[in-house]
Amino acid sequence: MNKGDLIEAVASQLGETKAAAGRAVEAVLASIADGVKEHEKVTLAGFGSFEKKHRKARTGVNPSTKEKITIGPSKTVAFKAAQSLREQL
């Protein structure tokens, strides 16, 4: 399922237009992104949690030259599914 499919599913379940469902999906995604950015963790009961993770600097290898390179520290987002979601799978 991609974003377009999600918007269609939301529109169908709510009986709304795709435009209205698209705005709702965009608002939810933006709120999750802002929450992770500002608070480092967003928990949606029964679904899961999104959390900001910090990666340390590490050594990597350039695949074309086989030369060792240093990869700097970075930030990423991790998702952990709630127990109820895992049981549904």
Verbal overview:
- There is one protein chain.
- This protein has 89 residues and is an alpha+beta fold.
- The protein is elongated, with a radius of gyration of 18 Å.
- The chain folds into two domains: 1-39; 40-89, HU Protein, Chain A (Irregular), CATH 4.10.520.10.
- It has helices at 3-14, 18-39, 83-88, and strands at 41-44, 48-55, 58-61, 68-71, 74-81.
- Helix content is 45%, strand content 31%.
- The strands form two sheets. A three-stranded antiparallel β-sheet has the order 1-2-5.
- It is built from three helices and five strands, in the order H-H-E-E-E-E-E-H.
Number of domains: 2
Taken as a percent bin, the fraction of beta residues is 25-35%
Query: Roughly how many Å apart are the termini?
Result: 15 Å
Number of strands: 5
Provide the structure class. Answer: alpha+beta
H/E element sequence? HHEEEEEH
- The CATH superfamily of the largest domain bears the name IHF-like DNA-binding proteins
Regarding quaternary structure, what we see is: single chain
The side-by-side strand order for the widest beta sheet comes to 1-2-5
Q: How would a crystallographer describe the biggest sheet?
A: 3 strands, antiparallel
Unreliable runs: none
Q: Judging by the overall fold, what is the CATH architecture of the largest domain?
A: Irregular
Helix content: 40-55%
